[in-house]
Amino acid sequence: MGHTQAGVNMGVMFKGGAFNLWETVRGIAMKKTKTKRVLAVASMGGHWRQLNEMTDAFEGHEVRFVSTSRELGDYYVRDCSRTQWWLGFITAAQLIWIMIRVRPHVVVSTGALPGLVAIMLARLIRARTVWIDSIANADEMSLSGRLSRPFAELWLTQWPSVSARTGASYAGAVL
Amino acid sequence: MIFVTVGTQLPFPRLIDAMDRLAGRINEPILAQTGVACSAKNLIVEPVMSEERYRHVLGISRLVVSHAGIGTVIAARDAEKPLILVPRRAELGEHRNDHQIGTVRELVGRQGVKAVWDTDELAELVTQELPPPVAASGPALDGLVSRLRNFIG
After folding, report:
1. Domain enclosing residue B62, as ranges
2. Which CATH number goes with the domain that contains A40?
3. Are residues A104 and A63 in the same domain?
4. Where in the sequence is the domain holding A124, given as residue range(s)?
5. Between the CA of residue B56 and those of B12, B44, B49, B75, what are the distances in Å?
6. Which of A45, A172, A174 lies at the smallest CB-CB distance from B8?
7. CB–CB contact A171 B147 (8 Å)
8. Which residues of A touch B152 (CB under 8 A)?
9. How far is B116 from chain A (nearest CA, A)?
10. Which residue of A has its CA nearest to B134?
């Protein structure tokens, strides 16, 4: 997705030739200062669909998607859960490799456990972090969500009542 | 056609069995994504669908009957298909906890979303013409997106 976007931008930039040199220079300068590299992580299923509802927020940035299905996103990571927590080491290794390649400025996740691992690793490379707890958790934050608290700069729930009880921020919801 | 889906992570025999019995009594074909392989007499079973297949099946269905998973709720809304939700219950070993009950409690009453607590109620509901959900995203999504956008900068 990000690749195509960048390709189109370059095409437009150079199409006008010398006439548009100023535009080109400004375009590159703007890219350096304004465009962020965003890594968006979500497990397949509901987490993935929720992340896809909010992609307007990434407009103008270079975004790479990570999921637990090879069918979805730009990068695949192995799924892990609390019952198979040891698989988290494989997921973490894959995420480290992805982060070395993408060098994200911002890491965003809607869960679940692989997303939490991504948020934790993001702090090591000083990326900014956002956790958006799944809207499926109307009564309390998910376990991954609770664990993400110290690592998430922006810690969001999609329910006002959960926000009131936990101190998570509420800004809206996908449904 | 009726599309039954219970996600791809956990089995949900209470719903699958109920729909299998129903499929023997109504004229409409019922296709089910069962998550795990299972034997059904009257249902057409596809344990795990690809994203492409899922979208196709959703597109040609009249009605969706599902566990209370958010993935299905969003997909059904985007496809404007009426949805009947049956929440998984932890006491029956259907999920780790009862969060699906909370999901149903909060979503029931919205247009295009019905909830069923007892699978015996399904027989009457699946033969009805239910109104489809509204596909348009509301101010709640706008709020979330703008908060995210401002954060990213």
Report:
1. 2-152
2. 3.40.50.2000
3. yes
4. 36-170
5. 23, 15, 10, 11
6. A45
7. yes
8. 36, 38, 57-58, 61, 106, 128
9. 17
10. A175
- The answer to whether B65 and B84 are in contact (CB under 8 A) is yes
Instruction: Please indicate whether, in this complex, the C-beta atoms of B148 and A135 are within 8 angstroms of each other.
Output: no
Alpha carbons within 13 A on the beta-carbon side of B10: 18
Calpha distance B7→B30 (Å, rounded): 16
Q: Which residue of B has its CA nearest to A54?
A: B145
Q: Which residue of A36, A134, A159 is in closest CB contact with B70?
A: A134
Q: What is the ipTM of this complex?
A: 0.95
Q: What is the pLDDT along chain A (175 residues), one digit of tens a residue?
A: 444 444 444 444 444 445 556 656 655 655 555 899 999 999 999 999 999 999 999 999 999 999 999 999 999 999 998 888 888 999 999 999 999 999 999 999 999 999 999 999 999 999 999 999 999 999 999 999 999 999 999 999 999 999 999 999 999 999 9
Q: What mean pLDDT do residues B35-55 have?
A: 94
A129 membership: H or E segment, kind and range: strand A128-132
Q: Are residues A42 and A124 in the same domain?
A: yes
